Hints:
Helix content: 25-40%
CATH architecture: 3-Layer(aba) Sandwich
Strand content: 15-25%
Shape: globular
Amino acid sequence: MRASWLTTMVDPGVARPVGEVVAEPLRLLYEEPGLPISDLPALLGATYGGDLGFTEPCVYGNFVASLDGVVALGPEDSSSGSEISGGESADRFVMGLLRAFADAVLIGAGTVRATPGHHWTADHVYPVASTAFADLRRCLRRAAVPELVVVTANGDVPPEHPALRHGALVLTTEPGVARLAGQLPVACTVLAVGEGPVLRMADVLAAISARGHRAVLTEGGPRLLGHLVREGLLDELFLTISPVLAGRDDTARPGLINGLELLPERPEWADLLSVRRRGSYLFLRYRC
């Protein structure tokens, strides 16, 4: 791993403590004119290299991929995203910024199991900007943190996960509700939105919308993203391209979408909205 997430990379091989402000902003290479903006706080705008905003309601995804298209290393690796990004601080900043815009963060139960110590909040991944993230959320009239939404058809959610202690909305099937009865922290809400074995993303998003959420960020995994694409419900995609080759052999290492074949019968084209760069990392934004 090139760098721990507790450091900010300024020059190759030189690390600074996390308590210092990032010195080098992302460099804007291209942006489509007329995109919505939300007047970012000064620190966030300077680091992002411009402004950012969304037309709501909006479902947007954020992923990091290797040069050869790998987004997850396999079930035995608990921190695939950090391994693929190399702990790059700019990637963690963008992750935090996108979480700061969200009413809800939507993930699959597999993502919960694969990241046992994680919290899906902005300041967890980029604490140096926690005050600015909080300012942005106040300006957007968001709650202090986005609501965590976990999707599981069979109810296989680890009840001991620390993120669940602060509360989460768990969307599942009737059998999943029965399996989870009395298992999760009291701060969690469990709702049945389907009979299974696969939940319809339209039903999932309807349940999220019913709680007043209009900006929904999904961070995976690839199978959940595939379900959203299958139903035509993904509005935007943010993709970090990390300058690393991951490789594939006998281990299942999925790309951005898993469980759904598109080409040649169903090509899904996206429009490039913006390109940013820091060092050898590219930060891409697409309209889907």
